[in-house]
Specification:
Elements (H helix, E strand, L loop, with lengths): L8 H14 L3 H12 L2 H4 L3 H13 L1 H9 L2 H10 L4 E2 L5 H5 L8 H9 L3 H11 L6 E2 L1 H9 L9 H5 L10 H9 L1
Parallel strand pairs: 1-2
Length: 180
């Protein structure tokens, strides 16, 4: 598959969710129920979760190799996605939890952000979803969870407080500021 035809990671995850969780048919409802009750390791025992892995590999080969050696984030992702009932492409989970009158307290949000164990992160996200009306940008949630230890939650602070991240400055801008 050429790079220009490869789906992005967030898109691949959102498509998997639409096919396997969102669709209102008996097999999808059954899978979602099983994943909601499953532990991280048990979630990996479902063929549909292996299909999710295949989609992740197609979108991000490096992440796919990492998951091959440590599949726990994949199982955690499947568990979390089983709790999402509504795709809101415009708003991340952090955005839906925060704002001027946050659905999740700042202290609880900070605990979520400090979580490092993938099962702890998944459990916190599962508990947060009802506060967000069980909806968010599904693909972004999945991408961030799979990359939690490296870069996933960094922009969650900006979303939670409904602000924009600062614009990055070019090297020329930085040199101009130093001279001024």
């Amino acid at each position: 598959m050429s790079d220009e035809k490869k789906p992005g990671l967030a898109q691949a995850i959102a498509v998997w969710w639409r096919i396997n969780i969102e669709a209102d048919h008996a097999p999808q409802r059954a899978l979602a129920a099983k994943l909601r009750r499953a532990g991280t390791g048990e979630a990996l025992g479902h063929r549909e979760v292996i299909d999710l892995y295949d989609r992740v590999v197609a979108a991000d080969a490096w992440l796919g190799r990492r998951l091959r050696h440590d599949p726990a984030p994949l199982g955690a992702l499947a568990r979390v996605l089983a709790h999402v009932r509504q795709h809101d492409p415009k708003h991340s989970l952090a955005w839906r939890l925060g704002g001027d009158d946050p659905a999740m307290s700042p202290a609880r949000f900070e605990r979520l952000m400090r979580a490092s164990d993938i099962d702890e992160v998944a459990t916190a996200l599962i508990r947060a979803l009802p506060m967000a009306g069980h909806g968010c940008a599904v693909g972004r949630l999945g991408r961030d969870l799979l990359r939690w230890g490296e870069q996933g939650p960094n922009d969650w602070y900006f979303d939670y407080f409904h602000t924009s991240p600062p614009e990055t400055q070019s090297e020329d801008d930085l040199q101009t500021e130093k001279k001024a």
